[in-house]
Amino acid sequence: MTPAILFLLIAVIFIATELLIMQFSIFWFFIMGLGALAASLVAWLFPGLSWTVVTGLFVVMSAVSAGVLLPILKRWQAKPAVVAGHDAIGQRAEVLQPVSSARNGRVMWSGTEWSARTVSGEADFQVGETAIIREVDGITLIVGH
User: Fold this and answer.
1) Which of the four CATH numbers 2.40.50.140, 1.10.645.10, 3.40.50.970, 3.40.50.12780 does domain 85-144 have?
2) Average pLDDT for residues 125-139, to the nearest whole number?
3) Most Cβ neighbours (<10 Å): which of 10, 32, 68, 78?
4) Residue 141, burial from CB neighbour count under 10 angstroms (0-12, 13-18, 19+)
5) Do the bridges between strand 140-144 and strand 112-118 make them parallel or antiparallel, or are there none, so unpaired?
6) Are 105 and 141 in contact (CB under 8 A)?
7) Which of 126, 119, 121 lies closest to 143, judged by CA?
8) Which regions of the chain does DSSP assign to beta strands (E)?
């Protein structure tokens, strides 16, 4: 197997892995994939290069890609807003899964899905209804009418 083909396969594997775990927003696999893609391209253009040179190019291009792209990607990533418990109180949340005092359900508030249960003695909520957040208990919203 030539260095060009090997590093092309490595690039495909790294970039595919990044796409599969994209929710982590790590970008390291993407950056390593770019380095492997650059090494593959150079090895294809200059077929007489040794494995050592192509591997060194992979390392250097990955480092350069990281130095250039990481600051840009980190700036591009949305920073999650800090949510304090008192920010939620009195706000409306859309019910995604039925919520009762006996069993937690799911609600959407502030663009995020939360675990929720009702205030003791309150009627249950069905999917699609709007609930008012009464308090926050850890990562669970306590909702009522």
Assistant:
1) 2.40.50.140
2) 90
3) 32
4) buried
5) parallel
6) no
7) 119
8) 92-97, 105-109, 112-118, 130-137, 140-144
Paired tokens of 54 = 């192509």
- Tell how far CA 12 is from the center of its chain: 20
Per residue in 3-43, pLDDT tens?
999 999 999 999 998 888 866 567 888 899 999 999 999 99
